[in-house]
């Protein structure tokens, strides 16, 4: 306690006797920068909020943080649609090139969704063992395939994304011409372009 009055006495001795004690404390407060400190705090809060928001966004988009779409995606993956394979015999098609000398030999397998049945209907107990569809459906699919493939050119098919574009065109044409057949995917098992 004895040191405290001497410190105060030493501090008050530096202040001229004309000034009141409140004026001595004012210069110390004026030296402390309030505006830059306030700006730094606000910028810190903004940067921290953006950082946390970015991490949460990344976790939700990658599926590591369960969100609404993550739960829906898991439920959708848990109950996949029942499909079967429709294997088509190889096709040989003249291409639409200028010389008329190009052709395409192609074999395809389609992944087709099983027909939807009512909620109370029981699944069929026996399916055809050979994997072949009825002849009307196969004939309709082959006709649609031949129509789409006959409009292609060798250059278009041999382009970098030619096969993917062809798959998209085939799915679209099958959806238009064969409404009762829901094609999920098209697989090329043989693909040869001869010029």
Give a topology summary.
Blueprint (H helix, E strand, L loop, with lengths): L2 H11 L7 H11 L2 H29 L5 H11 L4 E5 L3 E4 L8 E11 L21 H16 L3 H5 L3 H16 L5 E12 L1
Antiparallel strand pairs: 1-3, 2-3, 3-4
Helix pairs in contact: 5-7
**Main pleated sheet:** 4 strands, antiparallel
What is the overall number of helices?
Answer: 7
Overall geometry: elongated
| Total number of strands | 4
Estimated radius of gyration: 38 Å
Mean pLDDT: 77
End-to-end Cα distance:
106 Å
Strand content: 15-25%
Keywords:
195 residues, alpha+beta, 7 helices, elongated
Short overview:
The chain is an alpha+beta fold and 195 residues long. Helix content is 51%, strand content 16%. The longest helix is centred in the N-terminal third of the chain and has 29 residues, at 34-62.
Describe, in plain words, how this protein is organized in 3D:
- The structure is a single chain.
- With 195 residues, the chain is of the alpha+beta class.
- Helix content is 51%, strand content 16%.
- The protein has helices at residues 3-13, 21-31, 34-62, 68-78, 135-150, 154-158, 162-177, and strands spanning 83-87, 91-94, 103-113, 183-194.
- Strands 1, 2, 3 and 4 form a four-stranded antiparallel sheet that branches.
- The longest helix has 29 residues, at 34-62.
- The chain is elongated, with a radius of gyration of 38 Å.
- The model is unreliable at 7-12 and 118-131 (pLDDT under 50).
């Amino acid at each position: 306690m004895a040191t405290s009055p001497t410190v105060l006495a030493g501090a008050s001795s530096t202040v001229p006797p004309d000034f009141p004690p409140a004026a001595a404390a004012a210069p110390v407060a004026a030296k402390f920068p309030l505006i830059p400190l306030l700006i730094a705090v606000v910028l810190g809060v903004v940067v921290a909020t953006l950082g946390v928001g970015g991490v949460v966004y990344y976790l939700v988009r990658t599926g590591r943080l369960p969100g609404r779409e993550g739960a829906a995606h898991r439920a959708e993956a848990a109950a996949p649609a029942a499909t079967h394979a429709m294997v088509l015999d190889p096709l040989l098609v003249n291409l639409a090139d200028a010389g008329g000398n190009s052709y395409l030999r192609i074999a395809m397998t389609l992944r087709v969704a099983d027909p939807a049945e009512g909620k109370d209907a029981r699944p069929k107990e026996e399916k055809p063992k050979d994997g072949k569809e009825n002849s009307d459906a196969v004939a309709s699919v082959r006709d649609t395939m031949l129509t789409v493939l006959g409009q292609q050119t060798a250059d278009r098919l041999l382009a970098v994304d030619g096969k993917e574009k062809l798959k998209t065109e085939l799915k679209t044409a099958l959806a238009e011409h064969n409404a009762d057949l829901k094609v999920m995917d098209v697989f090329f098992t043989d693909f040869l372009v001869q010029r």
